[in-house]
Design brief:
Length: 138
């Protein structure tokens, strides 16, 4: 396969796709060194499935992974406020049985479904803790 690189110095979309039957390198790379302030539809990377009703917008399948640092790895070490991962549910549209986050461990007999760790001395409060559960309208 011939490698194609599209480079733009303008304020426009840029995509780099490479596939050389790699074993330890990236197959897809999107790189931008400019100060990016876009959000939502103008995020650094965006998937918009405006017609999606019952399907899936984004899937990661790594069924043969046995020892992984993280099948999906989010690094935001410079983050001082905001969230490294934001998941927004349907709010009042959400019906009984609907979930915003579901962790399905299959038939696991050991290990943790969710692990929260910190290497610092955490001095959190009820709403600023390692796990904050709040229901403001309950």
């Amino acid at each position: 396969m011939q490698v194609k690189t599209i480079t733009s110095s303008a304020n426009s979309d840029t995509v780099v796709i490479t596939n050389n039957s790699v074993t330890s390198n990236n197959i897809f790379i999107a790189i931008g060194s400019g100060v990016h302030t876009g959000t939502g539809a103008n995020s650094f990377a965006n998937i918009t499935a405006s017609g999606l009703t019952t399907g899936t917008a984004f899937t990661v399948i790594a069924n043969v992974a046995t020892t992984s640092i993280g099948v999906v790895d989010i690094s935001a070490t410079g983050l001082t406020s905001g969230s490294a991962l934001l998941v927004t549910g349907g709010g009042a549209n959400q019906s009984a049985g609907a979930k915003v986050i579901e962790v399905a461990m299959g038939a696991s007999t050991t290990g943790a479904g969710v692990s929260i760790t910190t290497s610092g001395i955490h001095a959190g409060t009820t709403t600023n803790s390692l796990l904050a559960i709040n229901a403001t309208s309950a």
